[in-house]
Design brief:
heterodimer; A: 343 residues; alpha+beta; 6-stranded antiparallel beta barrel; 6-stranded antiparallel β-sheet; 3 helices; 30% helix; elongated; B: 188 residues; mainly alpha; 8 helices; Cell shape-determining protein MreC (chain A); MreC_beta-barrel_core (chain A)
């Protein structure tokens, strides 16, 4: 230990805080200049903590299950009644589905339909909800020998959850569809119109950029669209709901607030620019051979929607959903260009 | 921390022999504030399923850093505040470094005003914390909006601030108890 005079020691103690502050400001600048450094550090921390969170998740989910079980026992009679009714309804639908499937197969036979390739997928447990107030994201833990790539599609038992944005060796981060930076091209099943589903950090993402003559109907099903080749067509997303007139939102099928088991599908559609977190929207450093437009760049609206997640939002323009004539019309895989209008 | 240790050694008086156990005990008491805060960051980022869990974190960390900076600065040194900020930055989606700057500023305010503040009653402390937390939240929101190149919604920030204000009395009671008992190195 070096013996220092009291005065020197006091001066050193006074200098510590300003020095640390300077260092922190340097970190902010560094983090803005090169986002990959921060991303790598984040992934390293997530990797280190994923097993710990995995350990914690198991007893917690056990507790939650026990609580749910007790609740079930209380209202089992009403549940039975409801299930019986639903079973009857489903049986009827099953018959319809079988008939439709047969008809579909027959029609496809006649059309020389090329089937979509079957995607490979892995199933993982969501171990942590790492988003903050300004971001909705999810951490899944993966065994070491699984290879995941950015842009893979995360789906839970009932619908689309989000896309993989960061990949570590033992964990992957998923940006959920209700994050404020999430932009998902969707199709309204009733009218076959395309639209953008724009996250708001609330439970229900907004529906925007649909054609002017289309009014999304309350309860209409919303599925993904293969526009921009970022997602496969036809994944169930949710249903349209009006919280107030003129402002349709999507109620997601997926349990975004209670993530449990997540399936990650590899459709081979990886050439998208990964979405940025709310706090990190800005020009990306070039050098990755990026295909899409620079996120957040001025005039990004004129660029093709090769990067739907970073499609610039026009928040606060007006309450009415804006219609963008500059959206290029790409051929939609799965069906020919639909007639715009109410089907 | 080293400075205070040396000065404590030089202080005249009769004290028990510094055996290994006693020194470990004192060290544990000294790291308790930082340890508690780090644990809170780790736990509040874990999948606990608490309602509005992510909004609880900033208030908890702010309250802890502020309280200990005022009442026991040797147990909440600047470099530890830096580490806590880094940890919460890496676990969340904040722009890297932002939380560190905010926490260091709060720490600085606490250190600077501690001679006056530590003699005040709880109510005034709460009011001071409220203004510090408001400033921190404003800075947080401004910086995030600046980095995102657009105005982020204000409601989450206000909600976060309200949670911080509401959490402070609870945490203050807990910390005051700890300050007198388990986090006091001189009781080792």
């Amino acid at each position: 230990m070096i013996r220092l005079s009291i005065l020197t020691r006091q001066a050193l103690a006074k200098l510590t805080l300003p020095l640390l502050l300077l260092l922190a400001c340097g970190l902010v600048v560094l983090g803005q200049a090169d986002r990959r450094v921060a991303e790598r550090a984040r992934v390293a921390v997530s990797d280190a903590l994923a097993p710990l969170y995995g350990l914690m998740a198991r007893p917690l989910s056990g507790l939650r299950d026990a609580g749910g079980e007790a609740q079930h026992l209380v209202d089992v009679a009403a549940e039975n009644e409801r299930l019986r009714a639903e079973n009857m309804r489903l049986r009827r639908w099953y018959n319809v589905a079988v008939a439709l499937q047969a008809e579909n197969a027959q029609l496809k036979d006649q059309l020389h339909w090329m089937p979509d390739p079957a995607p490979s997928f892995v199933t993982a447990r969501a171990v942590a909800d790492t988003g903050g107030v300004y971001a909705r994201s999810l951490l899944v833990s993966l065994p070491g020998d699984v290879s995941i790539s950015k842009g893979e599609v995360a789906v839970d038992a009932s619908g689309l959850m989000g896309r993989v944005t960061e990949v570590g060796t033992r964990s992957a981060r998923i940006l959920l569809i209700n994050d404020i930076t999430s932009r998902v091209p969707v199709t309204l099943t009733g009218s076959h119109a395309s639209a953008m589903m724009v996250g708001t950090n609330n439970a229900t993402p907004r529906l925007m950029y649909f054609p002017e003559d289309v009014h999304p109907a309350e309860g209409e099903r919303v599925v993904t669209s293969s526009e921009a080749d970022a997602l496969p067509a036809g994944l169930p997303v949710g249903t349209v709901h009006y919280e107030r007139p003129g402002m349709p939102v999507v109620e997601p099928f997926a349990a975004l607030d209670r993530p449990g088991i997540v399936r990650l599908f590899d459709y081979g559609l990886t050439d998208i620019v990964p979405p940025e977190a709310a706090a990190r929207v800005g020009p990306r450093p070039a050098g990755r051979g990026a295909v899409g437009p620079v996120p957040g760049a001025p005039g990004g609206a004129a660029a093709p929607v090769a990067a739907p997640p970073s499609f610039p939002a026009s928040h606060g323009a007006s309450g009415e959903p804006a219609v963008t004539p500059s959206l290029p019309v790409l051929p939609i895989r799965g069906f020919s260009k639909p007639a715009i209008g109410r089907g | 921390m080293m400075v205070s240790e040396l000065s404590a050694e030089r202080r005249p008086g009769i004290r028990p022999r510094p055996t290994l156990g006693r020194r470990l005990d004192a060290a544990a008491r000294r790291v308790l504030p930082v340890g508690f805060t780090a644990l809170a960051i780790l736990l509040l980022s874990a999948p606990l399923g608490l309602p509005e869990q992510e909004a609880l974190l900033p208030g908890t960390v702010l309250a802890s850093v502020f309280f200990w900076s005022v009442f026991r600065p040797p147990s909440m040194p600047g470099w530890a505040v830096f580490g806590l900020g880094l940890l919460s930055d890496l676990l969340g989606y904040a722009p890297p470094g932002l939380t560190i700057v905010i926490l260091l500023l709060v720490h600085g305010v606490g250190i600077a005003g501690r001679h006056g503040l530590s003699r005040q009653g709880f109510l005034l402390m709460w009011l001071v914390f409220l203004s510090v937390a408001s400033a921190a939240t404003l800075l947080d929101w401004t910086a995030r909006s600046a980095f995102a190149l657009r105005l982020l919604p204000v409601q989450p920030a206000l909600f976060q601030l309200a949670l911080a204000a509401g959490l402070y009395p609870l945490l203050s009671a807990l910390f005051t108890w700890a300050h007198r008992t388990v986090a006091d190195p001189s009781r080792a």
